[in-house]
Structures are given as C-alpha cells and as structure tokens.
Amino acid sequence: MRSIVHDRFGEPSEVLRVTEVPDPAAPGPGEVLIRVTTRPVHPGDLAGIRGRYTTDHHLPAPVTPGMEGVGTVEALGDGIGADSGLTVGGRVAFFPVPGGWGERVVAPRQFVTPVPDTVTDVAASQLMVKPITAAMLLRAAEEAGLSADSGLLVQTAAGSGVGRLVTAMALSRGFATVSVVRSATGAAVLRETFDVPVLSTDDNNWVARLREAAGSRPVQVAVDPIGGAISVELTGLLADGGTLLTYGGLAEGEPMGLDAMTLTSRGLTVRGVTIGRWLISASEALRGQDIDGALKLAQERPDLFDGAAEYDLAHVTDAVQHMERSGKTGTVLLSSPSA
C-alpha cells in the first residue's frame, strides 16, 4: 500500500515522501482494519513532522504522520459485535490512530466512530480534532466565568476550522464574541458566515476598534492558537481576572513575552487547552457527549467543515504548501481511492 513517510524531522515539503509499505497485519481482538479515503492536514501534523513535540530528533525508522481521517471498514477483529455499530464496508471516522496518512490503518475499537450517510466524507474526516477542541475551549471559557449574561469572548485566527466552530458554538449558547483574523479579505469572508464583529490585524488600529466593539462588556476570555507577540495584545485587552486560553503555537519559535507582574497584579490566568488532555482525562460519558455534538454539527453545519482543496497522497508536497498558504479558507485534505 502507499504511505506518506518521513525519516527525519524538518520542513514537511522537504522531508515527506510517498512510498510503498507492507499492508497492516489482520486486526486483532477489539481492532478494526480501515481503508482510509480522506484525511485532514492539521497544523499539529506539520508541527510533529518538524519535531516540535520531541527533544530527541533522531528517527530510528520512517514514520507515517496523521492521526485522524475517514474510511471504510475492511475487517473486524474478534470481540466486536453488532452492538458496536461497525460492519465490514461501513464508513467510519477515526482518532487518534497513528499512520493516518497511509492507505490502511488498524485502529482500536474505542477510537473508531460509525459515520451516518448524512455526514459527508469531508466533514467526517475532520470529525474529532476540531469540534472537540472547540468544545473544550468553550468549556474552559465557561469555567473562566464567561456566560451569556456577562463578559466577552475574543478569539484570534477566527477564520480557521476551530475558530469557526468556536464562534458557532458560542453563538448557540448566547455568548458575545469578537473575531480577529489576519487580513481584510479573511474578515470579509467571515462576516458572510457569522453576524459578529470581525477585525483584521492588518489594521493598525485593530486593538482600539476591538475595545470599541466590546462596548461596556469586559473581555473575560481570549482564545488564541498563535502565541508570540499577539499574546501581549490579548492580555492587555482582558479585564482584571480574565483568562487567556492558548491552544497552539502558530508563531513558531516566537516567545509570548508576557509580563509576570501584569499577570499577577491583575489576576490574569493563562491556560493551555489541547485535545491530548481530552484523551487522558475526559470521562467516557463526556467523550460520548462530545462525539455526539460533533456528529450533530457535521450534519447541521457542513459549511463549517469546508475543504480548501483535496490532493492525492502522491501530491503531499503541494498539500502541505497549500495548508500554510496565507488567506486559505477551509481544511486541506489528502485522499486515496476507496478500493
């Protein structure tokens, strides 16, 4: 089977290659063999290829990236009954399953979700990481004191997949929000999707304009996947006792530069949010609730799961370059045949 691999860390467009590798072994007890058809290219995937998540930069063997995707079941291991909802030939989403950028994966049953016909492949391929991250961010915002009656939620990179989901979920709960994006073009696109104030950091006066848009509402929570210098601007916008929720580091290598005395004297909180914590600490009931919520969103708002472009595995270099293109809207996808 074909698989995208890298045998050293570095820039994805330079180190990734497509090669033939052996098919996975037959699934063992409680496992599912999936032929993958569509998988997203996440910023976290690219960070992993660059070696951001390890201090040991030696790879003893080629690694296939990717943890999420959609495909069809080719075989079920022992112990998986009809009550699982899984059948050979059925469509499923998976996460977290290493090797998603290959044509086949073997996944533990608990990481596989049957996909109804009413959910498109494009949405199903993104069913877990983005919606669950958005749900986690909204829970953290509520824990930080945000409510429909008080406070304002400000988020950067609001045109991203997670950003749009956060806005949709926030509006459904009655939260007041202001969105921040990088460009005037991106702001115009986002205004067509949501009836919320949208500002661009291309405007030198965006901070003053945000304060004006906030009016009398204090900025209780700022949500940011960028880091770096914009963190200082965001903490400056927060009301005393407010919280900065960070869930990424798109400003790679750029320090946040936060002043310790500002944080302490104003009672500010900086909190990291990652789906990795969901995998470790979320109860089975909460996981089920979040997956059900993601399925509902995928059915009711497929526009929030738009694909920017779809590339065959053979064109992975083009895909990762497109992924990091300024002004991109939607998620870049990698595809492979269903048979």
Architecture overview:
The protein contains twelve helices and 15 strands. It has 339 residues and is an alpha/beta fold. The strands form three sheets. Strands 3, 4, 5, 6, 7, 14 and 15 form a seven-stranded mixed beta sheet that branches. It has a six-stranded parallel beta sheet with strand order 10-9-8-11-12-13, with helices on both faces. A two-stranded antiparallel sheet has the order 1-2. Helix 9 links the parallel strand 12 and strand 13. It starts with a strand and ends with a strand.
H and E string = EHEEHEEEEHHEHEHEHEHEHEHHEHE
Poorly predicted spans:
none
User: How confident overall, as mean pLDDT?
Assistant: 95
Indicate the structural class. Answer: alpha/beta
Key features of this structure:
339 residues; alpha/beta; 7-stranded mixed β-sheet; 6-stranded parallel β-sheet; 15 strands; 22% strand
